[in-house]
Amino acid sequence: MSGSHDPAHHPDHGHGHGHGHGHDHGHAHGPDHDHHHSHANQGAGRLKLALAITTAIMLVEFVGGWWTHSLALIADAGHMLADAGSLLLAVLALAQVERPADAKHSYGHGRFPVLAAFANGLLLLLVSAWIAFEAVARLVTPEPVQGLALAGVALIGLVANLLAFALLHGGHEHDLNRRGALAHVLSDLLGSVAALLAGLIIWQTGWLRADPLLSLFAALLIVRTGVRVTRESAHVLLEGAPPGLSLPCVAAELPRAVSGVLSVHHVHAWSITPGDNLMTLHAVLAPSADADQTLSRIQQWLRQTHRIGHVTVQVERQDCAVSADCGADERQ
User: Fold this and answer.
1) 13-27 pLDDT per residue, tens
2) Which residues pair with 331 in a beta bridge?
């Protein structure tokens, strides 16, 4: 048996190392490279400005909620806390691209935003539980709320969310970080509208229960975001298979797609970050198959068909399943 490692799997991410069955993935720094960095710098600037706006208005709404005794405003501020966390994670993710791998972090530092997202998701669930508890208490015993002041602060939050939306929507359409942050801001627009409606209803009718009822609506938005963020980040941290990737299908399709491959087994796939996918597998080759050429075709097929950026292949001439130590070193 012989192990074959794609240089992209190497800590230096493939800048032409002399592995027997690898490819040179060195990068030329030309106009496209400069164009990419221009988009990255522009995207980082937009994200930082949106983060500054969101954080400032979040603080205004927290103070305004305390001043007006409005739970709906505090709930909207809690939702804006989720937005600020999402924007901060997007900024951190861009920063991680510039940090190279080292001896202690062979895959780089890309998992830090995922870990932060998991903690942020748990915090959001705790915040939503507190808001729901307070809302139920206020439904039973309503508290006085300054409706007009509540509406005014909520309107400021709504305008700020629209500004943040314009900043993020004006960016590059393929910027996944910004698109994710944009989804958070869009959901927060609903929270701002809910707080604004609560203030207007109380101002015009004096119906105090409008505040806790619309607070429950905002809490549901926070729960939705918190559950999704926690579930997706936990899946990455637990090294789950990339979404939409079926390992049995890969094992069945690869021998039919790549000539010279008789069978595939011990297929494993996981992600460093969403979209940065890795895979290891054992490939049994036909006696007449050229190992180098077959390996190259395997790697190319996995990248083009399943977007696997880092591939490690254990080349075999017979199925190692009969061996007790089969797969012992497949994740090195």
Assistant:
1) 433 333 334 333 333
2) none
